[in-house]
Structures are given as C-alpha cells and as structure tokens.
Amino acid sequence: MLTVRHRSTRRLDVGLTLGPLGHGPADPTFHRAADGTVWRTSLLRTGPVTQRFVPAGPHEVVVHLWGDGSREAAESLPVLLGEDDDTTGFAPPPQVRDANRRGAGMRMPYSGRVLEALVPAVLEQRVQTVTAHRAWRWLVRRYGSPAPGPEPDGVRGGLRVVPDARTWTRVPVWDWHRAGVDPGRARTVARCALVAPRLEEACAMAPGEARARLEKVQGIGVWTSAEAAQRAFGDADAVSVGDFHLPAAVGWALSGERTDDDGMLRLLAPYAPHRHRVVRLLMLDGRHKAPRRGPKLPIADYRAF
C-alpha cells in the first residue's frame, strides 16, 4: 500500500469532486462510504489501481493506493482532485449562490482516462439512467478484473477495474444483449475501443479540439463528448446539449420557464467558461426542479427484444 497525504490551499470536498466519476449506487468501480470515504478504481498505463480517499479536514485528504498503477495515480492526484480547476472570474447566478457557498470544496475532476469516461457515457445515450447504470454494472462485473487491495465494507462482490480497450472490442453480441445494450451503442463502444490510443491523446489538447477528436468517432455526438469531457478533462464549460431533462431544469432554475437546448445555451452564455459548473451547482441545490408534465416514459428493456 502506498499512502499519500494531499494538502490543498483551497477547500476540498472529495465526495462532491469525485462524485461524477461514479455511475450509479452499485457501480463496481466507485464506492462512497457513510463516513465520507471514497473508493475508486482505474486502469492506468502502468496497471490497475484502487484508491481510498479519506477526508482529513477541509483542505486535506489521505489517499491509500494499491496496485501496479499506484505510483502513476499518486503523481496525478492533484489534477484528479481539481487543483488545476480555475474558478477565477466565476460569478454564480443568484439562484445558485447558496449552493456555491455550501459546495465551496467542489472541483471539476480530471481523470485523464478518456475511454473510462466514454464507455459509460455511450451506455447512457437515449435510455433512462437506471438502465445505463445496470448495463455498466453488469459489463464491468463480467469483463473487468478484481481490484487490487482490500474490499470496502458493504460492496457485494468487491470492487472491479474496468476492462481494457482490447476486451471491450471482444464483448460478444449476446453479452451486450444480456446487459441490455442495443446494437447501436454496442458498436459505438467497440469503435471507441479500437481507436482508444488516439482518443487518450485528447487529454493534451485544448478543450474544443479535444471534444472534436472524440466526435470523429461515429456514434459520439455533442452530448456524449460533453459527458466525457466533464470527467476526463475536467472541462467546467462542457454543456450536455441534447439531454432529455437538462434544458427544462436549467430553464426553470434560471428563468422560471421551461426551455429547449438553444434557450438553455442562451441562459448559460453569460457564465462561460463555467457553464457546466453552473449546471452542477443547480443540481446540487435541488430546489429548482421543473414540475413534471405527463406520465414517466416506460423503461425499455433491450434484454427482452
């Protein structure tokens, strides 16, 4: 076990910062314990790693690391925890000033792992979140590897490390079906995995150029590239255009009316380059949800097709 004590000059809320890297309450690569400890696994260039983040004060966290990727992960801890997240000039809208105060330790995480961010984003395309989380959990448990280090309490089956790119390309069609993933999304994951080295290069690019690189893959549009950029690149300005619920939520919060994607972008325009930060604060606040209209959409289960 490698232990690193990270001290920041600003407030640091590990749970809020790393929260977007988890995909559902039973994600086998991510676990948040009741005491605030956060567990996370990743597959780095030097190998797999398990990280346990133990808050040690408003500006400090102790991180325990296991696995061949421990030293590489230790070196990248500052960027993962958002030390490069620059909030200079950010003036939050009045609707989220209280959330901004309460979430002062929230940073934009920078995982630097593009495929790890892209695959769950692809699985979340055009389906309900619960369906996508179920598919991610099933695939990682079947094709991922056991995480190095101890198992956290309360995680059935232990933590897992995501499959590598080669493994993603070899998932057979019947297992995509068993996971509840339609052929279109399955093909998109395979395409991403086939060009994974080129996609990982996007971490060294400017935000717009990086997203353009991702969108060169057939099946990756502006919504998916934004979801990946928010996590892999720590992009505080990447807005998830095309989201089913987001425009209504942002419109209701900032103007008191529902809106569409164009209206959402107009409302968020004054806050660039912090538009995604504003969205995260709106979601953190929780008081500005647009009233529902009509019945919920039924959950499509592709396993039954």
UniProtKB/TrEMBL annotation:
<feature type="region of interest" description="Disordered">
    <location>
        <begin position="84"/>
        <end position="103"/>
    </location>
</feature>
<keyword id="KW-0234">DNA repair</keyword>
<dbReference type="InterPro" id="IPR011257">
    <property type="entry name" value="DNA_glycosylase"/>
</dbReference>
<keyword id="KW-0227">DNA damage</keyword>
<protein>
    <submittedName>
        <fullName>DNA-3-methyladenine glycosylase family protein</fullName>
    </submittedName>
</protein>
<dbReference type="InterPro" id="IPR051912">
    <property type="entry name" value="Alkylbase_DNA_Glycosylase/TA"/>
</dbReference>
